[in-house]
Amino acid sequence: MRPFRVVSVRPLVLLPVALVCLLGLLVFTVIRGNFSRKESYRRLFNRDAGQEVCLQRSAKRGEPLHRALELAPCRRNVGTSDDDQSFHLSAEGLLRAVDGLCVDSGLRLVPCHGQQHAWAFTQGSGLVHVESGRCLTRGAGPEVALLVCDDRPHQYWWLQRDRHDLAA
């Protein structure tokens, strides 16, 4: 019978194996994070003048690109593929409609292209377009505009958290 022999492994041989394992773990984590994170789409609404209105795509049908935004009475069905009142505010500040288009400084829906479409939001306070420094402002009737921030109720916006945020 042969005596038990200890085989020594050089540390340099283990280094590539360890790096491959770490790389595999990193790739798995990134893929899992990208596919398990679901964006939640919610209403963006204003309660000025005793009437609750939601931001929505213009009711004028046609070419979906560059469609203007307007205000309308809030509806209840959030996040369906044909819902014109559902938006998602990403961690990067992009305000997206359900079809993936972003709200730009002209208050139109356009393909997303980084910082020129970034918004800063404070619940119950305001929605500020980062590049221009102007606030989303409720106008008369269905009109919505990007104006100098004045900290008044026509510039106070909320993102619906659940069905209880909207008045019945």
Examine the coordinates and then state which fold CATH places here, giving the name of the CATH topology of the largest domain. Answer: Trefoil (Acidic Fibroblast Growth Factor, subunit A)
- Please give the CATH architecture of the largest domain: Trefoil
Mean model confidence by pLDDT: 75
N to C succession of SSEs: HEEEEEEEEEEEE
Low-confidence stretches: 26-37, 164-168
What is the overall number of helices?
1
Q: Looking at the structure, what is the overall shape?
A: elongated
Q: N-to-C terminal Cα separation, in Å?
A: 86 Å
- Strand count: 12
Strand line-up across the major sheet: 6-7-3-2-1-12
Q: Give me the secondary-structure category.
A: alpha+beta
CATH class of the largest domain: Mainly Beta
Describe the biggest sheet? 6 strands, antiparallel
Number of domains: 2
Question: Over all CA atoms, what is the radius of gyration?
Answer: 24 Å
**What helical percentage do the residues reach?**
10-25%
Percent of residues in beta strands?
25-35%
Describe the structure.
The protein is an alpha+beta fold and 168 residues long. The protein folds into 2 domains: 9-38; 44-165, Trefoil (Acidic Fibroblast Growth Factor, subunit A), CATH 2.80.10.50. The chain contains 1 helix and 12 strands, in the order αββββββββββββ. The strands form 3 sheets. The chain has a 6-stranded antiparallel beta sheet, with no helix packed on it. It has a 4-stranded antiparallel beta sheet with strand order 8-9-10-11, with no helix packed on it. Strands 4-5 form a two-stranded antiparallel ribbon. The protein is elongated, with a radius of gyration of 24 Å. Residues 26-37 and 164-168 have low confidence and may be disordered.
